Amino acid sequence: MRHRVRSRDWTDDLLARAREALATRPDESELEPKLLARAALAAMIDHTLLKPEATPAMVDQLCAEAAEYHFASVCVNPVYVARCAAALAATGVAVCSVAGFPLGTNVTEIKALEAERAIEDGATEIDIVMNVGALKAADYTLVHDDIAAVAKVCADGGAKLKVILETCLLDDLEKLVASLVAVEAGADYVKTSTGMSTGGATVADVALMRHAVGSDIGVKAAGGIRTYEQAIAMAAAGATRLGASAGIAILRGAHE
Question: Are the C-beta atoms of residues 31 and 237 closer than 8 Å to each other?
């Protein structure tokens, strides 16, 4: 896929918006977490199993738990999408899968093909990893077009697109630029982390991403969220979805 070289004005405007957002960033110390009922919290959680050693039996258990606790979705590797779609039919639990995972360094055509196949197999949500190296090299056209290609596949297939920024590898200005580019390219959500790099979600990063994208775009916090207290702190910062392998443990701390 050839990437259209965008104008210097587009890049300058992008950086100006990011710098303005950085200058007016929220103070996360002022955030006040609110208690969330168990059902409301469960409806925010992508019950996740992306480990390479995951077995079919483990995936079946994941689906059974998701149906029992009414999680928003299960998030699984592409090879298990069809299995999960069959297991969760008529339960109201969505199937989410990943593309370009976990490094984001697949070529665009492969990311798009992964997304297309996952949607054909029954996924209604796709989490892709941004091309982090391109972002850090300020090749914003490549980052945009990489996301936009998958966004088109998702739109054509009726699926939501979440873009993983891998915030632990970015400085704050880069996080803001990445968020703005993802939205412009057609993302439905921006997401903090794969959970497989040097760090996971932080309250500060979630608040910064929410500040960048406004109220109409979803923000998914993922990576290292293991307790109810962490979950409600992420929600207070602006997260509308939580990626977690510890969803049941998180719910144990919630109120009915």
Answer: yes
